[in-house]
Description:
Distance between the termini: 18 Å
Number of strands: 9
Bound molecules: adenosine monophosphate, manganese (II) ion
Shape: globular
Largest sheet: 6 strands, mixed
Amino acid sequence: MNLLNADLHCHSTVSDGTLDPEALAQRAKANGVELWALTDHDEISGQQRALTAASEAGLAYLTGCEISVTFAATTVHIIGLGFDADDEVLRQGLAATRGGRAERAMEMSDSLAQVGIKDAYEGALKYVGNPDLISRTHFARFLVEAGVCSDTHEVFRRFLTEGKPGFVPHRWAKLGDAVRWITQAGGIAVIAHPARYRFTPTEEYALITEFVAHGGRGIEVVTGSHSTAEQVKYADTALEFGLLASRGSDFHSPTESHTDLGSLPALPGKLTPVWQALQERVHRA
Ligand code: AMP
Ligand code: MN
Ligand code: MN
Ligand code: MN
């Protein structure tokens, strides 16, 4: 089970990826993925397309999403897997979480204008596949196009992050709400890329204990945004807290992402994979 090539984290044009759900399904299959989930930010309108494309490609599929949450004044991402994509409570929760992105984007544009970068809102919109989901990634692509930065990684070092031009603080969903939306829809909530948050050990302990108290059950251990040392650390965290372990590339784009679909190391053998607990929820091809 741990050796299964599961890739349970990636993004399509429905959020901030550059490939559509069909192209992702084909790429996952070609790269040897055996169980796939599309996890667009705050949005599940790509789920039916992903499921159909997975089934046509002969690829087992789990429903997925990545919910933006504010915890301890920090943005944390919670992955939902294996939920009922028609669930009304989940759908409304995600719609509420998306709300405010357009206004935030206009404020980001104003902030960039103050350092001489004009018309960033219009520029970012050209990259948006889903008008409900304008994100920092779309601004990053515009800043590369405009020649301000040479790639999107440079953008996130110089702009759009706390203390830098273009950053606008935003209040996302509450941790407990996001976990409950996923869980009551029959899914499992998973903390995404835990090493990416700038938490003190005390804050991280609070995140995990509160997450578990709300019904959260999983944590990403092997992800495109973890180093080998971070994988080892969060494998221990999964064991310590009795959490199911997940694996996902967080693939966004062939030209921007360092980790391709299906190309991650295996989940360490001592861990219980989240897909073991979701066997009944898998759409088999
Ligand atoms: P948003 O949800 O609008 O705040 O945008 C967040 C997205 O920006 C993430 O999902 C990533 O795709 C991207 N992003 C954020 N920080 C970085 C970073 N340091 N390097 C590369 N991409 C980033
Ligand atoms: Mn993203
Ligand atoms: Mn994320
Ligand atoms: Mn992601």
